[in-house]
Amino acid sequence: MKPYFLVTLVLLCGWLTTCETAANQHDADVDDNEFAEFEEFDDEEETTTVKSHQEPKERKVDTKTEDVVSKDEIEEEDDDGVVESEDDEFEHLQDEEEFEGFDKERGSSPKSKGSEKLPDLEIAKVPLHLRTNWDSFYVEMLMIAGLGVYFLNFLAGKTKNSKLAQAWLGAHKELLDSNFSIVGDDGTQKEATSGTLMKESENVYALWCSGRAHVEGMLVELKLLKRQDLINVMLRMFKPASDQIVITVDMDKSSMDRFVFAVAQKKAALRLHKDMNDLSQFAEKKNVDRYEIPSSYQILSEIGEANQTLLDKKVCQVLTKYEGLIEYIHFSDQYSGVKSQEETQSKLPETKAVLLFCFNVPDKGKTRPSDMEFVKPLLQFVFYCIDKVSRLQLGKEARGKADKNRQKAEEVFLKSIHSQRQEAAQSRREEKRRAEKDRLMNEEDPEKARKLEDKEAKRELKRKIPKVKMMKVG
Amino acid sequence: MSNEAKNNVNDPRRPNKIIRYKAPAQGTPSDDPTPDYMNLLGMIFSMCGLMMKLKWCAWVAVYCSFISFANSRTSEDTKQMLSSFMLSISAVVMSYLQNPQPMQPPW
């Protein structure tokens, strides 16, 4: 038993060492040029080493019992095998009894070389960590540089937008203070405060003003360009755009008569007519020839009388002078925002009376804080419009037309809701019937099935016979 | 005095008619969906980078979260922004720890 055990153990050790040497020899061939000339003998060497292993192993089994010693000897014999194939001259030196020490020395040098080779194998994997060969990471450097550039642009854009907003506020504060009780309320404090320019994002600033005749409140939104986003900056190189100032004036319902009116740049007019609830429902395109306004504008109006009153000399002058700066003006007592994407609406959308103004800041994109001064006359125009609209009184006929329009719109809406409800009810009924039929089909008990069938038949009959209302007379 | 009276008449200010500012409802979709899209894209890319060990995915995720941060509104939760940013950074770090080789350019 013991010898067999030893044999298997020895064979296992031998196999392990052959694997090592095979690997070593390959490395040797690759790394150590000293052994390059023996490359061709690779296979032969391996086979010879294997063969040379087996013989000494068998010899050793009987004489030696320690595994460690035998392992050492086998290792030595490995080297012996290598040395053997090198040169026949040194064959006589392979006698271990005589030259054990010498062998070890000889063995140690190739062995040490082998051990050198071993570390080489491991070191080959390490260089990527230890070697500071940063040149190979140039893609990563590019990425980090890109991020750095983006971040720098973010800071620069954010600062520029902030400066522009502050410049606008500085230029207009006096005018606003003279028109409103509070200028700049953010709605967070207990009492109404003044002087807060709300920052909604890095490129959108808002200002709420309130406390004026005919007006519930006015929201000024500075929709500046996204200077803080590098991608947007690059897109704008191809498609220039301007900073915009959007002013939403919430009018007192009592101060505004019933009409829907808009004057816009042609492109904007198309968009508004399609998207806005009130403009799509009530307004029609009108000719601009009758009025002294540039042809780049389009009029969308419900009531012709309102046009004539609103587009007076001063308004036309302003529209002509600031043609590029006025994007659109939209007056409506039925304003409810953009058309909802949802197909089903449970109730009529809430409407309010508003005056909307959208102004472009001069110097498309390349705005400087000093440019904000030029926008001041437009704010004065806003106040003029507010007063004009509050004074506007439509004639009886016009008012009647407006009322009729609104009633019609409401009816249409209710009809659509009704039809939607009917459809929903119908589909529900269908579902119920289908469910019952399924139940009937699945019913295994014949008695129950018959009962259900009778029930269904009765129900069908009931549905077919018109319902007769019983009335008590007398 | 008449001047003062005149001023009062012409003065459009009405201190008694002040209405407080009501911020628009949080849930309403605003005009610009960019930050939300970029946030989502960033998360998708960082998950791809982590799962499939793709370095370029992780880098794109970092860019997406940066863009989302730049375009975000102040009313939005900073925690979500920060978490997506951290996720993308961790995707980059993990892909480099697992495979320290430099990225191969496509050219």
From TrEMBL, chain A:
Q: Where are the transmembrane segments?
A: none
The segments labelled Disordered in the record are 39-116, 419-474
Q: Where is the composition biased (Basic and acidic residues)?
A: 52-72, 101-116, 426-459
| Acidic residues compositional bias, start-end | 73-100
Q: What Pfam families does the entry give?
A: CCDC47
Stretches of Basic residues bias are at 460-474
Per UniProt, subcellular location reads as: Rough endoplasmic reticulum membrane
Signal peptide extent: 1-21
Query: Topology in the membrane?
Result: Single-pass type I membrane protein
Gene Ontology MF terms:
calcium ion binding
Keywords from the named record: Membrane, Signal, Transmembrane, Transmembrane helix
Q: Which InterPro entries match?
A: CCDC47 (IPR012879)
GO CC terms, sorted: rough endoplasmic reticulum membrane
Gene Ontology biological process terms in this record: endoplasmic reticulum calcium ion homeostasis
Family to which this protein belongs:
Belongs to the CCDC47 family.
Q: This chain belongs to which protein, by name?
A: PAT complex subunit CCDC47
From TrEMBL, chain B:
Q: Where is this region: Disordered?
A: 1-32
- What cellular component GO annotations does this protein have? endoplasmic reticulum membrane
Q: What is this protein called?
A: Protein Asterix
Kindly list the GO molecular function terms attached to this UniProt entry: protein folding chaperone
The UniProt regions of compositional bias labelled Polar residues, in chain numbering, are 1-10
Q: Where in the cell is it found?
A: Membrane
Q: Which domain of life is it from?
A: Eukaryota
**Biological process according to GO:** protein insertion into ER membrane
User: Which family would the database say this protein is a member of?
Assistant: Belongs to the Asterix family.
Q: Which InterPro entries match?
A: ASTER (IPR005351)
Phylogenetic classification of the source organism: Eukaryota, Metazoa, Spiralia, Lophotrochozoa, Mollusca
Enumerate the transmembrane spans.
Answer: 40-69
What species is given as this protein's source?
Answer: Patella caerulea
An example Pfam family from this entry, by short name, is ASTER
Q: Which UniProt keywords apply?
A: Membrane, Transmembrane, Transmembrane helix
